[in-house]
# Entry
Amino acid sequence: MQPHETTQGEEASVPAVSGADAGTIARAAFVGTALEWYDYFLFGTAAAIVFNRLFFTSLDPTAATLAAFATFGVGFAARPLGAVLFGYIGDRVGRRPALLITIVAIGVATGLIGVLPDFGSIGLAAPIMLAILRLVQGLAVGGEWGGAMTIAIEHAPIEKRGRYAALVQVGSPVGTLMSSGAFALVLLMPSEVFDSWGWRLPFLAAFPLLLIALYIRLKVEESPIFRELVKLEKRAKIPAVDVFRMAWGRLIVAVAAAFLGVGGFYVMTTFVISYGTTTLGMDRGLMVNATLIAAVVQIGVILVIGRISEKVGPGRMTFFGGLVTAAAAFPLFWLIDTRNPAAIILAVTLGIALLSVAYSVTGALLTELFPPELRYSGVSLGYNLAGALSGFLPLIAVALLGVSGGASWTASLLLIVVSLITAAGGFFGERLRVKDKAIVK
# Structure
């Protein structure tokens, strides 16, 4: 598909955007996204330290961990379906209605996990119900990130898109910070109290957080670019079909560009937490706190790289981020293997900081890979197909550990492969960027 250009007949109706409006919308998208990611990330941490013991107790420890991560991956597998569903709503009905539905769905699903009986209470029904709620989470998140990023970008002046896209991306580390912080607090409880009811508290907090997120989302105005599409009658009939039919090459590039930001993150958090506690015998609290510290650093990296990308270009930043992460993969796991707490914290923090170079600009790059009439669907599909592949990376990494006798070099190679795929996505993505036209008012 060729980049979308505004024709002469459309010049009179070029949408107007405002820097002040863009900041308001981006901040609202950020807060809502942070709360959504808080809900979603809780599951990843719980899969590593709770669900493997309380919901899959009839299995041996390694099999239980594999089963927990498989359930974790179900949410990622559902995300492309959510991208199709909410992409249809976002490209046909509006960006705003889709975002209101996603926030309610994920908030309710997460809160219900907090009241779910464990295996000891209801047997096999417990992991089945857990998988169903994870499926709902995945469907909702499949439409959340793409919608929040699209509406923020479409409100922003074109030359300042990097900073506003980065602000939405900050929602991810803030969500990590909130979820890791919540688990760090409940892990201070005695083990029997934590296993009994303490682990449920972070999930139950999703209910009041849902009310906050919904209030914020109700204040978000519809995208001026989408309103212009309605006026011009340029909305796609079945957006996802058109993406696959007319922009499949761009979709492949989008998946590749997003792969490291999603997949590398879960290798350095979910897998590393499991590896540190199960294989290396490190304290659970230490591993969770390492991700908490890394999230603080990640916020700064994202905001800085977002500004730099406005000069350099999001594709070039993605290319560079993929290369530096690949180069650091082996040293990162060498540090973790020392079993030194400070070295582990440094490795997790540095690893997440490096992969965040590419992640910081994922939103800016993906939104400029697709024309406005296919943007919500294209961005959501690209990001969530990458997510579907990424969701099983912790499972693959654990399986490779078993094959290698617990050697971390297999995880290093996995991270290198993911990083190089994203570097390729950035290389081609910079050359395929769509140039919207808008008037800054």
User: Anything to note?
Assistant: Strands lie at 16-17, 439-440. The two ends are 30 Å apart (CA to CA).
